[in-house]
Amino acid sequence: MTMLTDKQAGVAGAEAGSRARLNRNRVLVLALSVVLALLPVLPTPEFWITLGNYIGLYSIVAIGLVLLTGVGGMTSFGQAAFVGLGAYSTAYLTTQFGLSPWFGLLVGLVITMASAYVIGLITMRMSGHYLPLATIAWGLSLFFLFGNLEFLGKYDGLNGIPVLSFFGVELQSGRSMFYLIWAVVLLAVLAMQNLLNSRPGRAIRALKGGGVMAEAMGVNIAWMKVVIFVVAAILACVSGFLYAHLQRAVNPTPFGLNYGIEYLFMAVVGGVGHVWGAVLGAGILTILKDVLQGVLPKLLGANGNFEIIVFGVLLVLLLQYARDGIWPFLVPAGPPVLAPGQAAGLAVRQKPEAGELILDVRAARKQFGGLVAVNDVSFQVRAGEIIGLIGPNGAGKSTTFNLVTGVLPVSGGEVRYRGEVISGLPSREIVKRGIGRTFQHVHLLPTMSVLENVAIGAHLRGDFRAQGGVCAAILRMNKAEEEKLLFEAKRQLERVGLADCMYMEAGSLALGQQRILEIARALCCDPALLLLDEPAAGLRYKEKQALAELLRKLRGEGMSVLLVEHDMDFVMNLTDRLVVMEFGSRIAEGVPEEVQKNPAVLEAYLGGVE
User: Fold this and answer.
1) Are 251 and 240 a contacting pair, CB within 8 Å?
2) Domain check: are 79 and 4 in the same one?
3) 186: in domain
4) Domain total of the chain
5) pLDDT at site 469
């Protein structure tokens, strides 16, 4: 009873902490809004207003980089070029054709989205150092394009950009533009927070983990990378539009590589994983740059861009001592409260009839060069069965799992699921058909809550197309759908006995609990076949008993289970049949009592029999 009380206290504490962080964020937004509202009407020096405008413009770009780099894990040095597209689009159309600036914004957004889509399709598939190099390349290309096109004024640019009119009010000065710029900043922050706390947002956050888990849960990671690249480019374009009408003139200089690096630096300094960190970083860097430009020439007795040297030193120190930026020091990090509440249940797939052939692995083969990891392995799984796939370390069990779930393509043979050949399909298509899985090495998002980690498993469920898109998430039009997904995640956590941990960070759980969490996430996919890779590893005796009881219950509900496990007592007392592998080949198959007496199995495990 005391243990239950302690758990309840832990849940209440985690929930209270999350709500306290949420309240602090609301207070921060309110305080910032009040300050921003009062600043232009008070006798504030014009210089401060100008500085505030630039901080706002830079913040909009940096917010996009938080989404792209901090959350999505894709480094981009070329965002300044998209700022240029927004600026030049409105500048050209308004000065050369006398068109409305708002039409110029629309054209700029269309050009930016089309450009970002094409560039994203090409570059977002890259990884490692190739991606940032590619962003430098296209950023420089657009910069030199701006400077060499005659109709854009070459390096002299375009002048005489008209004043922006907003609902009949002409924004003729920086003070009058202040409200519009910061309204866009606050809307961008709200939009990104809405996006990240949604179905597509969880998919975006899963990208940084490498993508294997995300694909296995149904996320099209290649498409999601392009989507967030386009979203970040749109924010940069809007910033460029506002910049053009603030300056009333444009030239290529602010859209070069140096500014692209500064935008990324702003996001990193503030906290590249935090939306508000982008605003903080933009403020710190803009103010610091202005101070250094005035102080350093006096100290050194010479003019030059010495502030860049200081920025370089600061970045090295920051990466050494505060890799998450400054924002986490001001506002402690933690998962937000996304209370599941009560909601209508998601649709559940009809389970196959007991005894129906559900998985048919036919002479599956996997070669890595000259190494044969899986050598023409065949076995079957029927509905309502628990099948154990066992063998010594390096036998090819996990590789076989990866062949079944599409993580690896087969080199020969085929895998059929309910009569359909699935061996050529990607993971996201296989999970859609009803195969859920866990991993040998736990694949979780440690800074996200347990509840959100499990909700990733429901990525393909519910009204995905109608209410699961990025635009719906940004505009918060998917609230009812989100409630269903989170309620389903809560239900699965209760099913596996982790409901007490739902508001905790997933990374704070013990290894055994993390493995149970993976099972809950797989169950959220609503599978008919569940593949578990060493689910009992790290569990204590009573936890193993509870897991075995859960798997028996699932079997009773018509679900099939294929598991890899090294705990022989656990396997022998649970499974209906065993498939034994050694050196990539199947060496035995049968009921546990027969298999444990098989000479080939004894040879594989014990090195020989007397």
Assistant:
1) no
2) no
3) yes
4) 3
5) 83
Domain annotation covers residue 66: yes
Give the bridge partners for 588, in sequence order.
580
- Same domain for 65 and 11, yes or no, is no
Residue 586 forms beta bridges with which residues?
A: 581
Q: Looking at residue 319, what is its pLDDT?
A: 76
- Whether 20 and 161 map to the same domain: the answer is no
User: Distance between CA atoms of 51 and 57, rounded to whole angstroms?
Assistant: 10
Name the H helices within 305-380.
307-321, 327-330
The token duo for 158 is: 């375009």
| Together in a domain, 16 and 107 | no
Range of the domain at 236: 52-257
Q: What is residue 163's three-state secondary structure?
A: coil
Check whether residue 1 and residue 78 sit in a common domain. Answer: no
d(CA 388, CA 542): 20
Q: Say what the pLDDT of residue 51 is.
A: 94
**406 and 536 share a domain?**
yes
In 10 A of CB 590, how many CB atoms?
A: 15
Residue 489 token pair = 């995640």
Query: Counting every residue, how long is the chain?
Result: 610
The residue to which tokens 């498939």 are assigned? 579
181-192 b/e (C-beta count within 10 Å ≥ 16 → b): bbebbbebbebb
- Alpha-helical runs (H) found in 98-255: 101-123, 130-148, 174-196, 199-206, 212-216, 221-247
CA distance 442 to 21: 28
Q: Give the pLDDT confidence score for residue 610 in this predicted structure.
A: 43
Same domain, yes or no, for 216 and 171?
Answer: yes
Which of 203, 225, 257 is where one domain is finished? Answer: 257
- List, run by run, the mean pLDDT of 10-residue segments along the chain (610 residues): 47 57 69 80 88 96 95 92 97 95 96 95 85 92 94 94 90 91 95 92 86 90 93 97 96 93 92 91 91 82 77 81 84 61 75 90 92 92 93 88 92 93 92 92 90 92 66 87 90 90 90 92 94 89 90 90 90 91 91 87 65
Q: How far apart are CA 74 and CA 131, in angstroms?
A: 7
**78 plus 153 within the same structural domain:** yes
pLDDT, residue 333, reads: 60
Residue 265 lies in a domain: no
pTM over 0.70: yes
